[in-house]
């Protein structure tokens, strides 16, 4: 009898423990963060991950899980995750038209809800123009992350060797290109694979015309690619391709890393790139590079000495469903604060990014930035009061339009189509979008 | 029904099977369920999605055959289909041709046989991504060795922009694809040759058949089934070819170097048009099946004639 009673109490005790234990030592709430920082891949990645580790140590009640996907593959990951109803709670993405589908489908949180809870991010600290890149139907759907201003560099040694002056006009630009070509030097590093970095260059030429600037700014609403600025800039790009101003094989030398690799080898006279590539510049490359202006087109209405392609590039998104989960909300706010403020500050202090958050940038001392390429470019931009011009790709309101545009730029660069066909191709894609 | 062991079972076994018919379902059900879930269901599901407009985020909207209509009217799709057929033709000729040749040479090799066999198979085990990137560097017109070699041997006229010239970029992308997998067919065909009874070859040698005659009149006819397997694998591989083209050129410029697999990926994930992507998937499925069936019929006929 006693044995039976003991057995009964033991079983009941075990059952009670099984029920109570999980509640006594509650498992941390999981917060999934999809980002692009692969451990050990770069100093930037390690610095960002160090902030996340610190956050984890300070908040054991949450488990901050990193889901790392580098580059364009993030687009696939998020789309497939959303389709499978398995989207992360927060993710790093791009600003602009690439967010449209998610905003329209209600996947993204109305950011005003996050701002109301955030302890560090204030709406006023970020310019309205930056918020505009993440605003859909008058609602902010993502927090803009960084400003990316392009830079155009000249290889000092090569210019000195051939006794050439840095070009300011189109004629001078083509003339130095001719001299370099005659001596086996590739005039610029501007290849084109997936439209990089070529579509930025094209956009820069477009913005030398008032019609181009307005056309780019209104592209998402007017869907018109036939403004004179677009047409003229395409003609000049065709002229550049025919004059051998680009690498011979723009596909092989396109995209970010290959285009910089070509410049790093010292056989390219001028380099057009963006801050996310500054990390690969060696001290020798920086020392040997002079920041110069883009050449002014013969009939340009705007002076490229005062602007360059640059706008908000990345943004952070919050899964609306996750934010509505009371258990997760506090963790999401903590993680988002870390992403938008702490990581941004850390990376800005290293010189790996320019944050859109003025409160972050106020804490950055330019003189102490270790990334000297960022220092060099920023000093040039401040001295010459360089402003950012809008980006065509970002203004295109649909993934297909963006890809068709990138693909057409590749064809223009590789001389598969001429400038007229290029304009017609992009406009046809816009017309198709209009019909839908 | 010759060849079907089921009908050769003893009457008592047949009786047992008839009595416990349900046992058949018990044994088959797990495999059937897994196969249905992993193969049949995705096919049916893709077929259904191919009739919709769907961006994977908003609900799918039924559009009937619009995706197929758009596909067959698309100039890009025509270029991609042409690329795929040319790719298939060249892959069949080169991979089977060289595969047969190299495997026959290996078959006759005594010294260093293992080393040569390993060398032939080595490219197959390399990651396609690594091979693709290696070929991007090799064919890079600005810094790669191909143009430099052509120049150094006085053939500057043959220099090309291998990855940007719309007329040749497709062949440039095709070359590592074909090269990388020849080794696989060498090994498959070699195994086929090694399964031929040696007495047959000995008799032919006694009858005075040389290497060429032995190869064409004995070995090739005797490994028809193996060649057919290679043809099937190459066909399926050609229709879903992806890595080399995507990594080397993104299928570009435009879609000049894209195959159906790349085109499907671009439309599905980059354009976020999952309905159209599924329609392309269906086209790949049906063409692959049709081509395989045609080849099978041809092989059967040849087999019958021989």
Mean of pLDDT of chain B: 89
Which CATH top level class of the largest domain in chain B fits?
Answer: Mainly Alpha
Shape of chain B: flat
What is the chains' assembly state? Answer: heterodimer
Return residue spans of chain B where pLDDT drops below 50 for at least 5 consecutive residues.
none
Structural category of chain B: mainly alpha
Mean pLDDT of chain A: 92
Distance N terminus to C terminus of chain A? 80 Å
Q: How is the CATH topology of the largest domain in chain B named? A: MetI-like fold
CATH class of the largest domain in chain A: Alpha Beta
Largest interface: A-B, 37 and 32 residues
Strand content of chain A: 15-25%
Q: What would you say the CATH architecture of the largest domain in chain B is?
A: Orthogonal Bundle
- How much strand of chain B? under 5%
Helices and strands of chain B, in order, run as HHEEHHHHHHHHHHHH
**How many strand segments of chain B?**
2
Helix content of chain A: 40-55%
- Counting structural domains of chain B, the number is 2
Write the SSE topology:
The complex is a heterodimer of chains A (436) and B (306).
Chain A lengths: L1 H23 L4 E7 L7 H16 L3 E7 L4 H11 L6 E5 L5 H5 L6 H7 L10 H5 L2 E2 L2 E2 L2 E2 L1 E4 L1 E5 H6 L8 H13 L3 E3 L3 E2 L2 E2 H9 L3 H8 L1 H4 L5 H15 L13 H9 L3 E6 L9 H5 L1 E4 L14 E6 L1 E5 L1 H5 L1 H25 L3 E2 L2 H4 L10 H12 L3 E3 L2 H4 L3 H15 L5 H17 L1
Parallel strand pairs in A: 1-2, 1-3, 9-12, 14-17
Antiparallel strand pairs in A: 3-15, 4-5, 6-15, 7-14, 7-16, 8-12, 8-13, 10-11
Chain B lengths: L10 H9 L1 H29 L2 E2 L7 E2 L3 H8 L1 H34 L4 H13 L2 H12 L5 H8 L16 H26 L3 H9 L4 H12 L1 H16 L3 H7 L10 H11 L3 H32 L1
Antiparallel strand pairs in B: 1-2
Helix pairs in contact in B: 1-2, 2-14, 3-14, 4-8, 4-11, 5-8, 6-8, 6-12, 8-12, 11-14, 13-14
């Amino acid at each position: 009898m006693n044995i039976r009673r003991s057995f009964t109490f033991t079983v009941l005790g075990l059952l009670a423990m099984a029920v109570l234990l999980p509640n006594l030592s509650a498992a941390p709430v999981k917060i999934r963060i999809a980002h692009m920082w692969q451990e050990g891949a770069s100093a930037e990645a390690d610095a960002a991950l160090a902030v996340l580790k610190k956050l984890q140590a300070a908040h054991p009640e949450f488990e901050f899980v990193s889901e790392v996907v580098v580059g364009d593959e993030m687009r696939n990951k998020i789309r497939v995750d959303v389709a499978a109803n398995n989207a992360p709670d927060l993710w790093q993405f791009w600003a602009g038209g690439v967010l449209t589908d998610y905003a329209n489908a209600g996947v993204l949180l109305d950011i005003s809800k996050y701002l109301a809870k955030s302890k560090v991010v204030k709406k006023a600290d970020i310019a309205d123009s930056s918020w505009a890149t993440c605003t859909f139907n008058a609602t902010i759907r993502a927090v803009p992350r960084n400003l990316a201003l392009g830079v155009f560099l000249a290889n000092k040694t090569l210019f000195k060797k051939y006794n050439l002056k840095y070009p300011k006009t189109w004629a001078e630009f083509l003339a130095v290109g001719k001299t370099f070509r005659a001596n086996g030097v590739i005039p610029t590093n501007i290849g084109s694979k997936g439209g990089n970095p070529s579509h930025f260059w094209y956009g820069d030429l477009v913005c030398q015309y008032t019609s181009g600037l307005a056309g780019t700014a209104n592209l998402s609403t007017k869907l018109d690619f036939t403004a004179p600025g677009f047409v003229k800039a395409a003609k000049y790009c065709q002229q550049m391709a025919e004059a051998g101003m680009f690498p011979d094989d723009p596909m092989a030398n396109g995209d970010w890393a290959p285009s910089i690799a070509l410049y790093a080898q010292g056989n390219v006279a001028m380099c057009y790139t963006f801050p996310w590539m500054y990390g690969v510049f060696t001290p020798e490359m920086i020392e040997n590079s002079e920041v110069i202006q883009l050449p002014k087109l013969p009939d340009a209405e705007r002076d490229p000495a005062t602007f360059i392609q640059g706008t908000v590039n990345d943004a952070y998104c919050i899964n609306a469903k996750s934010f509505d989960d009371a258990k997760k909300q506090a963790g999401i706010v903590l993680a988002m604060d870390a992403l938008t403020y702490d990581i941004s500050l850390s990376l800005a202090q290293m010189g790996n990014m320019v944050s859109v958050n003025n409160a972050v940038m106020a804490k950055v001392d330019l003189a102490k930035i270790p990334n000297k390429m960022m220092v060099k470019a920023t000093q040039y931009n401040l001295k010459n009061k360089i402003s950012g011009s809008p980006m065509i790709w970002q203004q295109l309101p649909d993934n297909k339009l963006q890809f068709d545009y990138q693909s057409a730029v590749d064809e223009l660069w590789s001389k598969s189509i001429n400038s007229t066909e290029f304009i017609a191709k992009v406009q046809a894609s816009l017309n198709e979008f209009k019909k839908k | 029904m010759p060849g079907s062991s089921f009908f050769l079972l003893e009457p008592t076994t047949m009786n047992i099977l008839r009595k416990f018919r349900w046992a058949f379902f018990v044994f088959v059900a797990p495999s059937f369920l897994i196969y249905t879930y992993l193969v049949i269901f995705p096919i049916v599901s893709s077929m259904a999605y191919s009739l919709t407009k769907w961006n994977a985020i908003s609900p799918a909207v039924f559009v009937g055959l619009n995706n197929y209509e758009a596909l067959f009217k698309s100039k890009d799709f025509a270029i991609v289909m042409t690329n795929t057929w040319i790719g298939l033709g060249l892959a069949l000729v080169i991979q089977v041709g060289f595969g047969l040749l190299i495997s026959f040479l290996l078959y006759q090799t005594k010294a260093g046989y293992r080393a040569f066999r390993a060398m032939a198979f080595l490219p197959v085990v390399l990651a396609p991504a690594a091979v693709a990137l290696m070929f991007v560097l090799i064919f890079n017109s600005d810094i790669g060795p191909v143009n430099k070699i052509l120049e150094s041997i006085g053939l500057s006229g043959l220099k090309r922009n291998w990855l940007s010239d719309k007329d040749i970029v497709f062949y440039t992308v095709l070359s590592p694809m074909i090269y990388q997998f020849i080794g696989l067919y060498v090994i498959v065909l070699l195994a086929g040759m090694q399964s031929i009874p040696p007495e047959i070859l000995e008799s032919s040698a006694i009858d005075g058949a040389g290497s060429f005659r032995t190869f064409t009149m004995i070995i090739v006819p005797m490994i028809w089934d193996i060649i057919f397997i290679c043809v099937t694998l190459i066909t399926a591989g050609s229709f879903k070819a992806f890595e080399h083209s995507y990594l080397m050129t993104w299928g570009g410029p435009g879609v000049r170097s894209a195959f159906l697999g790349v085109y499907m990926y671009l439309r599905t994930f980059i354009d976020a048009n999952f309905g159209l992507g599924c329609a392309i998937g269906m086209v790949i499925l049906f063409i692959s099946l049709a081509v395989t069936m045609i080849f099978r019929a041809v092989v059967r006929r040849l087999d019958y004639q021989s």
